[in-house]
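Table 4 source record.
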Amino acid sequence: MIAALAKTRIFYSWRNGIYVCDGNGDHARRWSPERDSSPSEISMAPDGRSFLGGQTDLVRLDEAGRTTSFGSLRGSGFRPRWSPDGQSIAIDVIKAYERRVWLIDDVAKITPPKPLTSDEAYEGTPAWSPDGRWLALSVGLPPQSPDVAQQEPVKHEERRSRVEVLELATRKRTFIEHPLGAIGAIAWSPDGGWIAFTVANSVCVAPVAGGSAGPSRQLAEQGNLGDLLTWSPDGQMLLTRRTVRRLADPRDMAETEDALVLVPLAGDVRTFEMHHTIYDAAWSPSGEEIAVTCGDQSLRRVRRTDGAQEVLAPSAAFCSPVWWRR
């Protein structure tokens, strides 16, 4: 196992730079140039040769240290998502109480980001299909909808939404039947056969074929779910997080104690308490280990089988681990 982990790399951000170590936590070094000011939230391109990040401006940094700006997002962007072929990028953008998905059509031509749709729909949490033909996203139901009639305007984290599947070539939309509520996260399975999402503190999945999804089913109900949701490499298990307790001392920067939650397509749910806020997490290429960034600013490795933890780096920023096969 140790030899296998040494053949992988974990990228993480710290103090405006991107760092890398092997899967055992050894040989840590700065990956980005010293002059670079990298965002704490980073997203790796499918070829593993560049990163994307930024909040008001979207910037790509490649392995040679070159930076490319795609222009202003006119709001705060987060969790950029590369298309599987690396040619396009979808990103959540929030401005005041408006939330939209923006799209960069052609990364190579440095096309500026633009709203995915021309309507005023409240949308977010984009997830690409493995073939890049569809995007799954959450869409807020308008106040005049019978489902939410007579409701007062609400903030984005309180809205009731539904998961829709958008075919990029035709802009045709279909939606998934599921209980209404705030959609926390969406993830498309590696084989393209399932769309998973969190709604009303439940983890749900829906079968999908050709961009059309069937009725959803609940896999697990967990209170206080976060916005983390990612499939294991074999597509048999989902990883999310939930808040176990909120800390009483407001001076404590961590604010919560969270747990990793492993939800299989079939079988029992497992929970591993981290005793810190969980910022983000990523599966190892084998799916046997999980990299986690925590509220104490540490990068940790958690074993999938029993939850055993090990600190790999004492200094790592939030929203940053990316685990890559060498």
